[in-house]
Write a structure and sequence with these properties.
By secondary structure, the chain is α/β, with parallel strands linked by helices. It contains nine helices and ten strands. β9 and β10 form a beta hairpin. The structure holds adenosine-5'-diphosphate and magnesium ion.
Length: 245
C-alpha cells in the first residue's frame, strides 16, 4: 500500500474492500443474489463453500472483471463499481486466479519480467520475490510449467506482490497441492497479512485456511450463509457440505 493510500484509508471509516448487496452473473442470469463482504485492512478473510457456490464470481466482481447488475463495490470508501480491472489493479486490487495465471513455457525470471510493464523495476520485482520465496531464486532459470505446484503458487504470489497490492485475492490457493505445501503457503500468507496486506482467500474444502484467517464466511447458492470467527465456521462447514442448510 502506498502512503497516499494509507492516509486515504485512515480518513475513512470504511473497510478496505467492500462488496455491498452484490448481484452479478453471466449474461442475464445472476448467480450472486445479494452478496455483502467487508475486508478490513490487514485482515485475512476466508471464503469457503462448495463448487458452484459463486466464490470465483465474487472474486470476479471484487477485481472488476465482472460488473455487477446491482450493488456496490467500494475500495477504501470510494465507489469503484464498474471500474475496469486494470485500473483496479493499479489501485491495489490484485487477484491470483484459479489455475494461478502464470506462463508455463517461460522461465521463472521471464515470468517475473512480464510484470515490469506495470512500472516497477525488474530489480525490485525479483528482489521482493526472492526475499519472500527463496526457493524461487534457486529455480530462476527453470520453466514455470516444470515447477512443483507449490513453487508455481509462489511464483503466482510473487507476480501479484510486485504490483504492491492493498488487497490480495487468492482463488483456491491449495488446489492440487500436498497438505504440507499448503501449510507452508499459508504461513507465507500469514506473514503477508502481518505486514499489513489485506487478503481474501477462496477455498472449497481446505479447512487449513481457517488457521490463518481472522474471519471466515461460508457461501452457498450465491449467498453468504454464515460469517464469523474461523472456529465457529469450522463447525458449520460440514453441515453446508452435507446440504443441511
Ligand atoms: N463463464 C461462465 N458462464 C456462465 N456461467 C458461469 C460461468 N462461470 C461460472 N458460472 C456459473 O456460476 C455459478 C457460480 O460459479 P463460480 O462462481 O465459479 O462458483 P465457485 O467458484 O464457488 O465454484 C455456477 O453455477 C457456474 O456454473
Ligand atoms: Mg471457483
Amino acid at each position: 500500500m502506498t502512503e497516499a493510500q494509507q492516509t486515504q484509508l485512515q480518513q475513512t471509516q470504511h473497510g478496505l474492500l467492500e462488496l455491498i448487496s452484490i448481484r452479478a452473473g453471466y449474461g442475464t442470469i445472476d448467480v450472486l443474489h445479494g452478496v455483502s463482504l467487508d475486508i478490513q485492512p490487514g485482515q485475512v478473510m476466508a471464503l469457503l463453500g462448495p463448487n458452484g457456490a459463486g466464490k470465483s464470481t465474487t472474486l470476479g466482481v471484487a477485481s472488476g472483471q465482472i460488473v455487477p447488475s446491482a450493488g456496490n463495490l467500494m475500495l477504501m470508501g470510494k465507489e469503484v463499481t464498474g471500474t475496469p480491472p486494470a485500473e483496479l489493479a493499479k489501485a491495489g486490487v490484485c487477484l491470483i486466479p484459479e489455475g494461478r495465471g502464470i506462463f508455463p513455457n517461460l522461465t521463472v525470471m521471464e515470468n517475473l519480467r512480464m510484470i515490469t510493464f506495470a512500472g516497477v523495476s525488474f530489480a525490485d520485482v525479483t528482489e521482493r520475490a526472492f526475499a519472500q520465496f527463496p526457493r524461487l531464486a534457486e529455480r530462476r532459470k527453470q520453466l514455470a510449467g516444470t515447477l512443483s505446484g507449490g513453487e508455481q503458487q509462489m511464483l503466482a504470489m510473487s507476480r501479484a506482490l510486485a504490483c504492491d497490492p492493498a488487497v490480495l485475492m487468492l482463488d483456491e490457493l491449495s488446489m492440487g497441492l500436498a497438505p504440507i505445501i499448503v501449510e507452508e503457503l499459508y504461513e507465507q500468507v500469514g506473514q503477508l497479512a502481518q505486514s499489513g496486506l489485506s487478503i481474501l482467500i477462496v477455498e472449497q474444502f481446505a479447512q487449513s485456511v481457517l488457521g490463518v484467517a481472522d474471519e471466515a464466511a461460508i457461501m452457498a447458492g450465491g449467498l453468504i450463509q454464515r460469517i464469523g470467527a474461523p472456529d465457529d465456521i469450522a463447525e458449520e462447514l460440514t453441515e453446508v457440505y452435507l446440504g443441511i442448510t
